[in-house]
């Protein structure tokens, strides 16, 4: 009888522990990866940390982190449009080839994505999380005082190094603190991305419209004194980044990621951080260091986790320190992303998706205006008012798209993969449809649809990718896919230089790339919906 009661009580307790969508079953969070897909000690410890975060729940710390991590999304979408918004007045003033400004920006974004993503796996999330906004703010403000185009392009490249690191680092930080039941909020964070575009458009509208030289053909002299709008705009946006940095660094205290610490063998610190987060939220955590140690006893020799012990056997000379630092930037964080056939397939498909989408967007933007003009499209009066009005409308449309993305990824029969596939295919469809526009309003209408679906697509893509990388190599994985996106983005203007801008072929190729990418998304082997990221 006692045994029967014990079994009944156990079954009852297990039923209580089941949570919505099976995020937690039998007190153990379900993983994205199957057994033995990654190091068994790391996987078992990550489960314990996931259970601890689920036990703490979504509290004050995570909601505050949702806000400060959102600053990175805002920055990521704000600064790429900044160069577009200031392009006309700076070309009028400096009389130089405008594409060099975009080139400097793209190079900086590429360097930033690679450097900060890998750096967050080497040095930790905390400093990388804070420094990206600081670098962006300092050099953007400095760019406002540029005396010539060389200085402006150079400073744009440097501020873009900071911008490029935002999403690879910030997505990892947020994902590693949020409980599995609320991982969908990583997708909802893209609402900050849409807000970044809206903010830039709203601030640029009065400044550039009222404090810029008139655009004339042929160009007339445009002295600095009559063209202060773009400088005011850079001062305002750079100042905003410095303000957001102050909030991140001095107002909100970011703890180092527990999973990062555990992956580095610093189990005691990982447990300490979990308890600090629990205390911050007014909760209690049952996680103990002994629980993590027991995992090592179960899998002896699988993972060297005593970092201090390793240090004792190290060469402590300056040369030894340099060698260890260089090794950190080697392949140690790349190989685990291809450790098994299924994981390698997943990583390869993610790189492919980011690369193709990185090419398709700028390829379309490079050709569509010229193509439509040659087909007799009437774009209205071309006034500054119409230009910025349309930009604001497109920015506003992106906000509900980002919110819808957070809902769509939790639909059982769609999940991350299905939602990403549908939104990407629809983006390609709206892109094709935009080529039929013959008026400004028609083009605006099609672009509203394309803005809506593309914001859904990017919101899901930005969230799905870090979910499919193990924590200890997540920064590197994010860096690889973001770098692929930037490299292929640089290819678009090169294609524009050598192809006929009046040709419709590149536009149709761009639409086809989006549609193909939508089907590729369905081939991803892992579906993170309802499962905890490791």
UniProtKB/TrEMBL annotation:
Residues 65-529 form the Major facilitator superfamily (MFS) profile domain. It comes from the Eukaryota. It is a multi-pass membrane protein. One of its GO terms (molecular function) is transmembrane transporter activity. GO terms for cellular component: membrane. The chain crosses the membrane at residues 63-87, 99-118, 127-145, 157-178, 185-212, 232-255, 343-364, 392-413, 420-437, 443-464, 476-499, 505-526. PANTHER family: SYNAPTIC VESICLE GLYCOPROTEIN 2, TRANSPORTER, PUTATIVE (AFU_ORTHOLOGUE AFUA_7G01740)-RELATED. This is Major facilitator superfamily (MFS) profile domain-containing protein.
